Automatic annotation (TrEMBL):
Lineage: Eukaryota, Fungi, Fungi incertae sedis, Zoopagomycota, Kickxellomycotina
PANTHER family per UniProt: CUT9-INTERACTING PROTEIN SCN1
The organism's place on the tree of life at top rank: Eukaryota
Keyword Manganese listed: no
Record protein name field: Cut9-interacting protein scn1
Binding site for a divalent metal cation 1: H7, H9, E92, D217
Length: 262
């Protein structure tokens, strides 16, 4: 039965090719993060075109590379060109108030993160692409950004809240109301959501069954196999589904999310 990992970084480790050969029932959305790894994601897509969905974007942890010129000013045009060549979605992008630059010990500058996110959301909306969002301790700002995009008619058609770490009430009261309800999918990983099982189970119960996704959020392709089995079992327990029923529903949800146009 098909299994979809909707958010991972397996292009960063050499075991990806062996795992893809050994597990033909597993498909992956491989998320780039920093411009320098876009080509590695594209190459994996070219080798396994039926099982890899590429995601091209700039993670908030790399926002300073725009300021120092490590990421060129042409990044938006380059991103559009990669999408034209390889398809895929926009990601990983988002906001993060918790992480710190390991070189300086300082938080990543937040206002530039907001600008970077808006520019990537604009591209996703313009091209009709789904987007994978990272959000840590910045949900209030994330909501403001999405609501501004909605007012301007620039919301992407589908929005993944990856490894969602907010509350179930926030889902019910904000992300699963109004126009966002039509577009938001909520993804869970054992890596993140296993840390607070009770809260995560309540979040899984709050999400409509057609909008739940699962991911590994891992770099090692080998480790994704067990991680995905664990999160599928977690969702199945929370929703009262059998393992096979969970796999079937989650795979259908993933296919719906990755359709390029409504």
């Amino acid at each position: 039965m098909a299994v979809y990992d909707v958010h991972c970084h397996i292009h960063e480790t050499p075991d990806a090719y062996a795992v893809l050969e050994e597990h033909p029932d597993f498909s992956y959305c491989v998320q780039a993060t920093n411009y320098d790894d876009w080509q590695a994601v594209a190459e994996l897509k070219m080798l396994y075109p039926e099982r890899i969905v590429p995601a091209f974007g700039i993670h908030p942890w790399f926002v300073e590379r725009l300021a120092d010129g490590t990421i060129p000013d042409t990044w938006e045009a380059d991103l559009r060109q990669l999408i034209a060549l390889h398809g895929g979605i926009i990601g990983e992008c988002g906001l993060d108030k918790a992480a710190r630059n390991p070189a300086t010990g300082q938080p990543y500058p937040f206002e530039p993160q907001i600008d970077l996110l808006k520019r990537q959301l604009d591209i996703a909306a313009d091209l009709g692409l789904p987007v994978s969002l990272h959000c840590v301790r910045a949900f209030g700002t994330m909501v403001d950004v999405l609501r501004d995009a909605e007012k301007q008619g620039k919301l992407p058609p589908r929005i993944m809240l990856h490894s969602y770490s907010g509350s179930p009430d926030m889902l019910r009261q904000i992300f699963l109301k109004g126009e966002l309800r039509r577009r938001v999918f909520v993804s869970f990983s054992q890596f993140v959501n296993g840390r607070n099982a009770d809260k995560s189970a309540k979040c899984m119960q709050a999400v409509p069954e057609s909008r739940i996704l699962v991911e590994s959020d891992l770099h090692s392709a080998t480790d994704t196999i067990e991680a995905l089995e664990d999160i599928i079992a977690f969702v199945a327990r929370a929703r009262g589904w059998s393992r096979d029923n969970a796999c079937e529903r989650l795979a259908a949800n993933a296919r719906h999310f990755f359709v390029v146009n409504d």
